[in-house]
Fold:
Amino acid sequence: MPKRFVVPASDFSELPRFPGDLELAEALTTAAQQLHDTATPHSTMQTAVRLAVRLLPGAEHAGISVLERGSGRRAAAWTDEVVRTAEGSGGGGDPEPYWDHLWHAPVVRMADSEADDGGASLAGLGLRSALALRLRADKRRLTLLTVYARKPGVFDDAATRVGRLFTAHVSLALDSVTVREQLTEAMRTRDLIGQATGILMERLNIDAAEAFDSLVRASQRENVKLRDLARRIVDANNAT
Structure:
């Protein structure tokens, strides 16, 4: 059986700037370990932007944002307030026209925001170079990882290569933690519905199937999600 190669846990900042492929592989393995140790999609994205600054050559700032057709762009994770402002925090500001290319290409590079079309707002924040990479994509929504630098012409082909390898790990980690979160929520919901069904069985002197059918009908009648109605029943029962 081949030996499993595991990079010892260490402070990511102590890793070398990988002049060769072995160092890059070690850095990416360590990054993947840290990403998969996160517990929620939000913490995965926060870890990803922190690692992006340490991993991608020339990166000084990083952010993850969601771009929706017709709904602008909103920041989901950021390393600092400069990025939060650049990516339209909270309010979903209009995306820069430059990033529209990401609907058709996995990577967009901005060499100099003072010279390139669509870079005026970045230039105003002192961000001259940008490299945006797709994490997730469907017909109406893109999730992007973008790194920034205060000097022009920072992100070359090597940085793009590292960025694409890194975002593959981020995408896998996000998918994994999202599935875990959904399964956990499903287990909680099942337990909650089971408790509500038991309460109805006792109160109405009916069997489990009848109690569940009653719960479903009430959910449809009141236009309330089944789990929310079940929570109301359980909370009301606990309060008496």
